[in-house]
């Protein structure tokens, strides 16, 4: 959306200043909304699971069973158990967590400078319709973000929100004019120290502001004669800088050596590394198929190794005389809490090789 083009300028001003309920619980899989989602080939379902299966999660007082979100028999569903287990954790609502500390600092900034002018929404369900996630914010029908390669689909009409802007049009239609929306968002992504399939975002919209929001969005919300200003930011990246947190996986750690370092209202406390366990490198090479995507490969690796994988990086690629293309990826295994054994890493690598060949239609080398 064009409203995000002003993100860096706006937040630079706000962050400089920072440094010196009301929940909508709607959920429906039987949506009548029409949306032309693009589908790449979904990954075959597997019965092997490394993660303990969570039977249900609570989101804003509403309980969702695993089978409502993780559907092994639905070819349009690509939500793994590792992602389902993150639903409802809401790190942004934990006052002693770096994400919560940062969110509250942003709230304080707006409360101090624009007292009682902005409503705050931080408990909206991350399970939304494709209309909310794409159509309402004018994502083109053929945009790559609609594909199974980029977005987690519950079914063909329902997704895990890719951005908190998914709630923008609904809030406008309900009569809200100035608001901050904070929440967890979900995107299939690469694996390294700054990328994670779940992160937290905050949007700010003001009707009668500077006029950068697409007019079609306002018109569809019944605000044809208005202008609006909006911006969005990812809280993890900013928190990594403010708190000197080197690895995005740490935000999801329950290790007291991490969680005990942060306190409510203390912005910018510098993280003290409690240990740096040795990495273990494993390479895997294979001939790719036409349907191969790196995101699908990373999902396979993450589905087996979870947060024990630190990075997946393409280190070599070539095409032979027959037109076949080979990729070689280096997988870096490293726990944030303990040393991994050779036996453990070898077992993970073996499972990765098996699953990559089975799921991605590639030929191992």
Automatic annotation (TrEMBL):
**What is the superkingdom listed in this entry's lineage?**
Eukaryota
Pfam families from the UniProt entry: FDX-ACB, tRNA-synt_2d
**SUPFAM superfamilies attached here?**
Anticodon-binding domain of PheRS (SSF54991), Class II aaRS and biotin synthetases (SSF55681)
Q: Which keywords are on file for this protein?
A: Aminoacyl-tRNA synthetase, ATP-binding, Ligase, Nucleotide-binding, Protein biosynthesis
- Ranges where the FDX-ACB domain occurs: 275-365
Q: Which Gene3D superfamilies match?
A: Bira Bifunctional Protein, Domain 2, Ferrodoxin-fold anticodon-binding domain
Family of the protein in this entry: Belongs to the class-II aminoacyl-tRNA synthetase family.
> PANTHER family attached here?
PHENYLALANINE--TRNA LIGASE, MITOCHONDRIAL (PTHR11538:SF41), PHENYLALANYL-TRNA SYNTHETASE (PTHR11538)
Query: Mind telling me what this protein is named?
Result: FDX-ACB domain-containing protein
Q: Which organism is it from?
A: Brassica cretica
